[in-house]
Design goal:
With 633 residues, this protein is α/β, with parallel strands linked by helices. Helices cover 36% and strands 24% of the residues. It contains 21 helices and 25 strands. The strands form 3 sheets. Strands 17, 18, 19, 20, 21, 22, 23, 24 and 25 form a 9-stranded mixed sheet that branches. Strand 11 and strand 12 form a beta hairpin. The protein is elongated and about 90 Å long.
């Protein structure tokens, strides 16, 4: 089964030319021409068709044709005249398929046989032009709102030029059993349109017109829908039809790349879940298991390294290695490796020039580094390479959020020997005092809110991870949208935080860092109070939390006095889930323009991130900034 990829022009921003160029560059085989995109563009149908073909694509569909079936006279006759005009346009444009969506007109009469008669006659007319017509059930259709009814109408029309068009949103939004699709012959399905969406309780039409997103970015079971389609033997085009206000105001290039990635990922999933159904997809390894974070690399200058190194020392890290040929130092505590790169050439230096001191590189521990990059590249990720010196390992890598880099370390390729091969051991300072930090709990990346879905899809399609429901974090200056990505055992956790305005702390950080970047690192300890005491002995000054927070905490959880006093003493925030799992958080002051460290202690299976504490943490951070004389964020 060889499936082609397509996307509707309504899905992205720009004029028709901009859209077509972005769609072609993303690797799509075809494009649906949305009628309004054509009508508002100053070119003839034949010119548009030539543009598409010159870009190496085909026009998979012309759409939509509305309010056709079941109309009384004189509307019925007028509809056939209107269809003839569109048939002529389609022939000139060079496409053979038109979409008719089920009638929403108050004048429509309904009736399956009446609709079938109208479609049969339209099929006769289409056949004379060598064209086909697909009928789609809109979820809010006046008489037809279910693909099962649409199929029955097509079946009764019984014309080779009339088929059904299936749309995942219309089926899934109405919670129709997708397995009913399996009874439709694959050759009677003329095209399959795909869209996901967050689950929201609202009017179906408004939900559809404003909140659709790419498969894998929402909450609908698009994979289950596609498995049912695949079972029919359908071997045509999979096309994205995405109505989304954010997408239509965003980057056409970025949205197109996301769309193509989502289709490849979806087809790959279905091929693995339905091994008995042969779906020809671009060969790629399966989603990659990650077993943890191997290293975090900072780009800095030598002058700024002193402050960063001092902070690491206070946190209990020791400098234990120097690179064999570069100005790169390795700091370690527990299983945490922090690298500080002060080279004046190469990628890290370029990252510093753009962003200032920042996390420029993340190293992930995977089972197979080569397979990881192969899958990432198949899904449209940008590979990364730079020259390596003598005795240095060539470690596979791709570009990540904000132009950063993600390197992959495995045992099978010998890449795990990087520390022994590329670094010379340095004896830790005698006065170094470890604080009990054992590993990186999570990495928090901050970005513009319109990038959230892009990076959520990036992480979940490449790695064996899943997403949690998106939550709103309250900053006094606005909302931050936050979504966590994690693997099954919690050894990889990434929180994606999207900001819309620069008055929020997250927005201020994006502005100062010139784009998406890691804003904070969370380290795990197994005993938060012991760690807090050691940090205090090292000279650590925690973020100062308002006493009002602890009064409210006591009211919420009824904590013992001694326990509450300990929390207050060390500035520790606390949360508890419904199953009794506990979470402790301790924050550092800011480093640079809004970067900070967090120390966490998870107990009893707590899997969240202390969202209830975020407003108190943000308020404390803003007070800290004002105390330093930084303009109010």
């Amino acid at each position: 089964m060889k499936l082609k990829t397509s996307i509707a022009t309504v899905s992205i921003a720009g004029d028709l030319s901009d859209k077509l160029n972005a769609i072609a560059a993303a690797g799509f085989d075809g494009v649906e021409i949305f009628e309004n995109d054509f009508l508002t563009y100053d070119a003839s149908p034949s010119d548009v068709g030539k543009m598409v073909r010159d870009l190496g694509m085909e026009i998979t569909l012309f759409q939509p044709f509305r309010d056709f079936e079941g109309m009384p006279e004189p509307f019925r006759s007028r509809n056939f005249e209107r269809a003839e005009r569109k048939f002529e346009l389609m022939k000139e444009m060079g496409t053979d398929l038109m979409l008719i969506c089920s009638n929403v007109s108050p004048a429509s009469l309904g009736g399956i046989d009446r609709a079938a008669d109208d479609l049969r006659e339209l099929g006769e007319r289409a056949a004379k032009h060598g064209l086909r017509v697909g009928f789609e059930a809109l979820a809010w259709g006046r008489h037809v709102s279910d693909h099962r009814d649409a199929w029955e109408i097509v079946r009764r029309a019984d014309h080779p030029n009339i088929g059904i068009i299936l749309d995942s949103f219309h089926t899934l939004a109405r919670k129709i059993d997708v397995n009913s699709i399996r009874a439709i012959p694959g050759d009677r399905i003329f095209i399959v349109q795909l869209a996901d969406a967050p689950v929201i309780d609202m009017d179906l039409l408004y939900w559809s017109r404003h909140f659709r997103n790419m498969p894998g970015e929402g909450d609908l079971d698009v994979t289950g829908f596609m498995r049912a389609v695949a079972a029919t033997g359908y071997d045509g085009t999979l096309s994205l039809e995405i109505f989304n206000d954010q997408f239509r105001g965003g980057s056409a290039k970025s949205i197109s790349v996301d769309g193509h990635r989502s289709l490849l990922y979806l087809m790959d999933q279905v091929s693995r879940l339905e091994p008995g159904i042969a779906i020809q997809v671009q060969p790629m390894p399966d989603r990659v298991a990650v077993s943890g974070v191997e290293f975090i690399e900072f780009a800095a200058t030598e002058a700024e390294t002193a402050e960063l190194s001092g902070m690491l020392q206070v946190l209990g890290f020791s400098c234990i290695g120097r690179h064999i040929s570069k100005n790169v130092m390795r700091w370690r505590q527990g299983d945490i490796n922090i690298v500080i790169n002060t080279e004046r050439k190469g990628f890290a230096h370029s990252s510093y020039v753009v962003h200032g001191v920042n996390v420029c590189d993340i190293g992930l521990k995977v089972a197979d580094a080569g397979a990881t990059v192969a899958r990432a590249r198949a899904l449209g990720a940008e590979p990364f390479e730079q020259p390596v010196g003598p005795e240095e390992l060539k470690i596979p890598a791709i570009r990540g959020a904000g132009g950063g880099v993600i390197h992959f370390i495995d045992e099978k390729s010998g890449l795990a020997a990087v520390w022994d091969q590329e670094f010379r051991y340095i004896s830790a300072a005698k006065d170094a005092k470890e604080a009990g930090l054992v590993r990186i709990d999570h990495i928090a990346e901050t970005m513009a809110s319109d990038e959230l879905l892009t990076w959520q899809l990036f992480y979940t399609s490449i790695f064996r991870t899943s997403k949690t429901p998106m939550v709103d974090v309250v900053d006094p200056a606005g909302l931050i949208r936050s979504q966590a990505i994690a693997n099954a055992d919690g050894s990889l956790r990434i929180t994606l935080n999207g900001a819309d305005n620069r008055r929020t702390l997250a927005g201020h950080f994006i502005s100062e860092a010139f784009g998406a970047a890691v804003q904070h690192l969370a380290f795990e300890t197994k005993d938060i109070f012991r760690t807090a005491e050691r940090l205090k002995q090292n000279g650590f000054t925690p973020l100062v939390i308002s006493p009002n927070y602890y009064d409210d905490l006591d009211a919420r959880f009824g904590l013992e006095d001694a326990f509450l006093d300990q929390l207050k003493l060390y500035g520790i925030l606390y949360d508890r889930d419904d199953n009794g799992g506990e979470y402790f958080q301790l924050y550092s002051p800011f480093y640079g323009e809004g970067f900070f460290f967090e120390i966490v202690d998870r107990r009893g299976g707590y899997n969240g991130y202390g969202a209830a504490n975020a407003p108190f943490r943000i308020a404390a951070q803003k007070r800290h900034l004002r105390a330093q004389g930084v303009p109010k964020a």
